Amino acid sequence: MTVIDPRVQEALDGERDPATLPPELREDYARLTGAAALLSAAPATSVADRVMAQIREIRREAPAPRPPNWLLRPVTFRLRPVWTLAVAAAVAAVVFLPFREAAKPGAEEGVAQFVGHFPGARSVEVVGSFNDWQRGALALRDDDNDGIWHGAVVLPAGQHEYMFVVDGERWVSDPLAGRYVDDGFGAGQQNALLIVRP
Amino acid sequence: MTKPAPRGSPLVVSDAPSDSSVVAQVLDGDAEAFGIIIRRYEPGLLRFAARMLGSADAAADAVAESLVRAYRHLAQCRDPEHLKSWLYRITGNRCRSHIGRRHMSDIALDDAPPLADPVDTWAVLERSEQVALVERALAQLQPEKREAFVLKHVEGLSYEEMADVTGARIPTLKMRVHRAREALLLALKELV
Fold it and tell me: Do B29 and A2 touch (CB under 8 A)?
């Protein structure tokens, strides 16, 4: 193995002015920087068209468009007390009726229950392979403020990967999942694994 | 924070949307906006993959698969400000997967021109021959060293960015780069 003089390494790391290298070391420096320059030409090809074609295909196969973020942001209303009960009843009618319908699994579906202990969290949601990792699709609830967040959703039978998103920014693997799979992005993060049976 | 322009230099205003805003646009349902990300990073990703795999065709396949995967899992990009590192990480993983399926020396030599006559000198070699020689020397490096050299010297990433891409610690990456330089220099001296 050729050992490169540390001064050449320093120059290549940008820690030393190459002009200060002794003449006998400049050849190694020039050869390596020249090699890097020769490798810097990008291949004269493009995959943009085929990638966009696949993305459009994915979009066509997607079950339904996701609502825009502005629809998912929490909104605070100030109401006179007399209106509070009426508005609460109306909201309950809109929110809970569709949920009950969705909670009836079909023959090839099952109900997945999610529970996480996140004391002090302002919001917890579940993202996963079943909702294309899109946020805003499945929010968990902590009605009694005890830090236990829970929710349920009907999913197709089979194996699904998921993670919790806490306070909209912290991605947390479910410590109670029991099964995990590498998220494939190389940073050592693991997605929790869920198996839904009909 | 925006770095102020030096005194006396013209103020350059870029209309290009930030990576974060493009990611938000795509996640809001505008799939076509992903084309901005492709145009922005495709050349570098193709170059990186080509240097890792030693074949333009294999690189195109790896980058196409990586970009589609990135689109599918864009919501998993936890820090869109570091989208570039995230894309390189996905592409690097895909390249490692390709390398794992076949031996590097089986790939690089297919497209390479014949070796130069030993009496030739570096200076008189044509540029295409020089490129072929350097590619051949690069192909002789272990994948980890090859990746380190390419990310550092071809893609111009900082050691911090390289750590984001590879998941390795900075001292480890520095050692890999140093070893890669030594191995590459040796290979170049043997080939020319």
Answer: no
Which among B162, B164, B169 has a CA at the least distance from the CA of A187? B164
B113: which 2 tokens?
């021109």
Instruction: Kindly list the domain boundaries of chain A, sorted by start residue.
Output: 6-38, 63-196
Residue A57: list chain B partners with CB under 8 A. Answer: none
CB proximity A60 to B under 8 Å: no
Q: State pLDDT tens for residues A76-128.
A: 545 565 555 555 555 444 444 433 334 567 778 888 888 888 888 889 999 88
Rounded CA separation B92/B81 (Å): 19
Instruction: Identify the band that residue B142 occupies on the pLDDT scale cut at 50, 70 and 90.
Output: very high
More confident residue, A183 or B140: B140
Contacts of B167 in chain A (CB under 8 A): 186-188
Mean pLDDT is highest, among A113-117, A156-160, B173-177, for: B173-177
- Classify the C-alpha dihedral B104-B107-B111-B117 as positive or negative: positive
Q: Does residue B118 sit in helix, strand or coil?
A: coil
**CA dist B174 to A136, B87, B96, B168, Å?**
41, 22, 20, 10
Of A42, A48, A68, the CB nearest to B28: A68
- Between CA A123 and CA B162 the distance in angstroms is 33
Asked whether the predicted pLDDT for residue A26 surpasses 50, the reply is yes
Residue of A nearest to B86 (CA): A185
Measured between beta carbons, the chain B residues lying within 8 angstroms of A9 are: 178, 181
Say if residue B9's pLDDT is above 60. Answer: no
Domain A63-196 has what CATH class?
mainly beta
Show which of residues 70-109 on chain A sit within 8 Å of chain B, judged by CB atoms.
Answer: none
Over residues B103-124, the pLDDT tens digits come to 544 444 444 444 444 444 555 5
Average pLDDT over residues B148-160: 95
Nearest CA in chain B to A7: B178
Structural domains in chain B, sorted by start:
17-103 (1.10.1740.10), 112-192 (1.10.10.10)
From the CA of A66, how many Å to the nearest CA of chain B?
7
